[in-house]
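pipeline: protein-struct stage 2 | run 1193 | CDP-diacylglycerol-inositol 3-phosphatidyltransferase
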Amino acid sequence: MSTRQTRRKSAKLREAAAAAASSDDDQKPIIMNGNGSAHHTPEATDIEEDENIFLFWPNIIGYIRIVLAIASLYYMPVHPRTCSVLYSISCLLDAFDGYAARIFEQSTRFGAVLDMVTDRCTTSCLLVFLSSAFPRWAILFQGLIALDFSSHYMHMYATLVVGGSDSSHKNIDKSQNWLLNLYYTNKNVLFTLCALNELFFIGLYLLAFSSPWLSPHLIKSVEETSGGFINPGAPVNTSLLRQMFPDPFSASALEIARANKMDSLIPWAIAGISLPFMVIKQAINGVQLYNASKWLADVDIKMRKQKGLPRKNKAKRV
């Protein structure tokens, strides 16, 4: 093949390649800029849409839990049956958000924190009501609130410090503590203890409306409870504030509570059966608080050694 023929063949190959490239470009959509210049749009694979974490199914379940919990608090002073049903459903949904996270692959840090915060707040609100219903035991309920918040906060903070931001508060080695490892890794143990712990407080709450032995005001009349007699035809305070914010422990509210009270047999059975599990759950909270404190102290010791602390005293100058 002569040199001229070789050149012609190379030129044809270049023209064919240019034509092919031009046809590929023509198939891509063109967008005109405001200044009149044109450019090809990037392919769909180059565009990544940000996911809306707040609308993940586990988090939506978490929002439903919050709404149910608020509704149960609204009915808590005078409607024990309605309150117990709403509160129980809110607690049971705690198990479903975990299943939803695994099924839809939507496990997030926001969801984990939302779940923990909801648990702590709902339980503490119920304990606050029990403190007012049983004032002699208020210090015990206040102590349980403090233990619950402090143990989980310390544990969460220690996990982030020791394991880093990618770690989970449920990742506990057996070498660290076998009890916490069993509690956080075994779903049956975790669900049983949390559910029966809440069930004990619900049973105690129901006893406030059903057991005169625990709540002596249930056997008192409206006049004795309110501190005075109600005269027929007496003017009623119908101010807007009184209608919007009625006193949950007023004579009328307590009368409604007595009308909604139930037999104490079932509440006593609920409280008696769930009491040992509540004690175990509180013991785990105590162990969690102790271990988290120890982990943080160990980290402090290592950091102080790295910084050369405590500094040795320099030899005194003569």
